[in-house]
Design goal:
This protein has 327 residues and is of the alpha/beta class. Helices cover 36% and strands 21% of the residues. It has one domain: Metallo-beta-lactamase, Chain A, CATH 3.60.15. Strands 1-2-3-4-5-6-7 form a seven-stranded mixed β-sheet. It binds zinc ion (ZN).
């Protein structure tokens, strides 16, 4: 067992830092509410030994027994949902949302992702390799998890914590946060992060995730929040300021994408991504690690899609490959 970093945030509320080896996110925050008769664990970490041993150590030290514990998962990504199956007992409820459960349960998910990647210009020789290295492919729960589905406004009560589900699509289609309106605590998952910007990308459908994300940011902006407890990195005190920064970040990104698409021949999402500025050590696109190219292309596509939905960009190409020009 690896010793866990456990931080006590409030009475019966703990943050466990679950390490994500060789991943730029560094760690996932797993929150534990210790209460009678049942405990609640919010998000887990990837389904891999390094995460599991840390959470098992935390469970032992905080005296958390799986059969007395329920789980809440903010969204479908492996660094949040990964360990629910392994850590839970038969008595455990695992709360989740329907749109994300549907994606997680797609039999042909990786085939759909693979086809979409090719359509958007991701080099064919790299697609398979990218999917093999994808954390969603490697570290998701292995079987069919018996989820209890929650919807916007549903309430969970654990000890002195009264948590309301706030559905915030954008980062994923069904991403759900938890809000304690008395304490004004907001468990934000990957909807609002402090030191890094949540990745908004699209791989499985024809929606406008960035448009959804803006609407979800506006929804949270209206709520009084004293402390944001995010899925990664440090707590955020000024929620509204962070929301404004995130919106500004995407506004600048959209402007950059318009400029790239406006310059010359029709471009694929992959080509747009290669021209965008990225906050990475590698300077040239060619030197980017494969998974960073992958996430960058998804992010570029989400921005292009939003420009398409708002009428600034139009889709062309031959059906096999989608190329974009200014409208
Ligand atoms: Zn995520």
């Amino acid at each position: 067992m690896t010793e866990a970093v456990i931080e006590k945030l409030d009475q019966d509320l703990y943050r466990v830092e679950v390490p994500l080896p060789r991943n730029p996110l560094k760690a996932t925050n797993s929150y534990i509410i210790k209460s009678q008769p049942r405990n609640l664990v919010i998000d887990t970490g990837m389904n891999r030994e390094e995460c599991k041993s840390v959470l098992l150590d935390a469970f032992q030290r905080l005296d958390i027994k799986p059969r007395e514990t329920d789980f809440f998962v903010t969204h479908l990504h492996a660094d949040h949902v990964g360990l629910v199956e392994v850590l839970s007992a038969e008595e455990s409820k695992i709360f989740f949302n329907r749109p994300d459960a549907e994606v997680l349960g797609m039999k042909n998910l990786w085939q759909v992702v693979c086809e979409l990647a090719g359509k958007h210009g991701f080099p064919a020789e790299l697609v398979e390799q990218a999917i093999d290295s994808h954390p969603g492919q490697r570290y998701s729960p292995s079987g069919n998890v018996d989820f209890t589905m929650l919807e916007d406004g549903d309430l969970l009560h654990y000890g002195d914590y009264h948590l309301r589900c706030v559905v915030t699509p954008g980062h994923t289609g069904g991403h759900t946060c938890l809000y304690d309106s008395e304490l004004q605590y907001f468990f934000s998952g990957d909807h609002i992060l402090g030191d890094i910007t949540p990745n908004i990308s699209t791989w499985v459908d024809d929606r406008d995730p960035l448009g959804d994300y803006f609407a979800s940011l506006d929804k949270v902006y209206e709520m009084p929040v004293k402390l944001v407890l995010p899925g990664h990195r440090s707590m955020i005190k000024d929620c509204r300021r962070r929301i404004k920064e995130l919106k500004e970040h995407h506004r600048l990104r959209l402007a950059e994408v318009v400029e790239i698409i406006g310059g010359g021949k029709p471009k694929s999402a992959y080509e747009v991504a290669a021209e965008m500025t990225w906050d990475l050590v590698a300077e040239r696109w060619e030197d980017f690690p494969l998974m960073q190219k992958w996430f960058a292309t998804g992010e570029a596509l989400a921005h292009i899609r939003h420009l398409e939905f708002t009428g600034k960009v139009k889709r062309g190409g031959d059906g096999n490959k989608e190329l974009y020009t200014l409208n």
